[in-house]
Design a protein that fits this description.
The structure is a homodimer.
Chain A (H helix, E strand, L loop, with lengths): L31 H12 L4 H10 L3 H4 L4 H13 L3 E7 L7 E6 L1 H16 L7 H6 L6 H31 L8 H26 L6 H9 L8
Antiparallel strand pairs in A: 1-2
Helix pairs in contact in A: 1-5, 7-8
The structure holds a DNA duplex.
Amino acid sequence: MSTRKPETAPCTSAPATSNLSDMAGSVIRPSPLAVSVLCMLHAEPMHPYRLQQLIKAWGKDQVVNVGNRANLYKTIRRLLDAGLIAVLQTERDQLYPERTVYQLTDAGRRQAVRWLEDMLAIPRNEYPEFPAALSFAMLLGPPGVRAMLDRRAGLVREQVARLAAGLAEYGATLPRVTLLEDEYKLAVASAELGWLDGLLDDLKTGELTWTEESVAAVAADPDAQPPG
Amino acid sequence: MSTRKPETAPCTSAPATSNLSDMAGSVIRPSPLAVSVLCMLHAEPMHPYRLQQLIKAWGKDQVVNVGNRANLYKTIRRLLDAGLIAVLQTERDQLYPERTVYQLTDAGRRQAVRWLEDMLAIPRNEYPEFPAALSFAMLLGPPGVRAMLDRRAGLVREQVARLAAGLAEYGATLPRVTLLEDEYKLAVASAELGWLDGLLDDLKTGELTWTEESVAAVAADPDAQPPG
DNA sequence: TGGAGACTAGTTTCCTAACGACTAGCTTAC
DNA sequence: GTAAGCTAGTCGTTAGGAAACTAGTCTCCA
C-alpha cells in the first residue's frame, strides 16, 4: 500500500476557518445537489419545482440527479436550516398549489463558491460500481466476462455517439463553458470504450484468460498487495 | 442519454422470475459492498472483520469502501436476512471478542453472479460530483476555474503515476485478471488528465473564456437544451 | 360531458450509504 | 506501567435513492 494513507480526499472545506457568518450554524456537507441548488439560485430566486424543471430543461439532470423531488425538498430544507438560502416569498398563484420562492443569502453565495472550488480542485473517490464489479469479474469465467463486457461496450458506444452528436449540435450555438460536463463525459466514456475494446480483443484471442484454480492459487499467496 | 427513459438502469435483475429459492424473501438491492461480501465468501467462509482485512490487504479497498465497519456489518445483516449468506459458526478464540463466521448459501451464490453480470454489462449513471461541479464552473470566472483545474490536474497526474507504477510492479507477478480495476482506473484517469490539460491550455491561451453576462444572456434564451 | 392522461407542487415512507464515535479486552513498545 | 494499537463489533446521525401518494388543473378526444 505504501502511499495513500488518507483513504479519501479532504473535502469539508476547513471547518476551522471563518466563524463569522454562521448565522444558523449547523455545518452542512456538500453534495452535488446542494451546490446545484445554490448555483441555480445564484442566477435568480425561484421555487423548488421550477428549479427542477430548469435543471431538466438545461439537460443538467444528466449530471445532478434531480429526479427524486423528495431529495430536492430535503436538500432545500437543509440549506434553509443552515442559513444558506432564505424564503423570499410564498406565492399562491390562482388555485395552484402554494409554492415557496427561495433566494440565496450572502453566506450561501460564499458557500457555493467554496464548494465549487473544492469539487473542481480535489478528485474524490466515489466508489462507482463498475470497478468494484471488475475486481470480482474473474468468478464469471472468461466467456462470462466477455459476454457481459461485450454488452457493456455496445451501450457505452451508444453513449459516446450520443454525447458526440450532442456536442456537435449544441457546440455551434452554446458557449463552450456551458458544455464542459459533456466534453468531460465524452472524454471519459471514450476512454472506457477504448479500454473495453482492447480487453475484449484480448479475451477473444485468448491472450487474457484464467481458471478458478490459477486465481485461487495466487489468492492464497501472501505476496498479494495490488497498487493504489 | 435520450434513450434511458427510466432515469436509472434496471438493475434488480427481474423480480418476476424465479420465485423458487426465496427462502427468506425480502428483495435486496445490489451494492458494491454487498457483491463484494458475496464474492469474498465465495472463496471461503469467514467473519466480517477478516473480510475487511482481506479486502484491504488485496488493495480492493480502493474500490469497495470497506472503511466504515458499521456499513459492513449492516450489509452483512441484510444479506443474512435475505438468506444469501448464513451463519456457519460463532467461534470464541481464547478471550478475543466473539466472532461470527458466515458462508454463502446457494441463493447467495446465484445472486452474486446475477449482480456481477448486471454491474458489468449495464453502465449506470451514478452522478459523481466532478461533472456536476463542472456544469456550474462558469460562475468562478475563467481565472478561478483555471486555478482549480490546475490543482486537480496535478492531483490526477499523481494518481495516474501511482496507478501506472502499481500496474508495472504487480503486473509481473499477479495474473492480469486480478488487476482489471486498476487498468480501468488508469485508462479513465489518463483520459481525464488529457482532457484537463487540453482545457487548461485553452484557458491559458484565452481560446476558452467567458463573462457572466455572456452566459446569462444565453441562459435567458429559450433554445437551450444541451445534449445527453 | 366526461374520462384518460399529463402537468404542477409538494409530502410520505422505506431502504440504504457515509461518517464518526464508542466499548472493551488484549498485545506491543517505550 | 502506561500509552498506542489491534481485534471485533455496536450506536447514532445525517443524507441520498426510489417509489408511491395527495390533490387540484389542464388538455385532448371521442
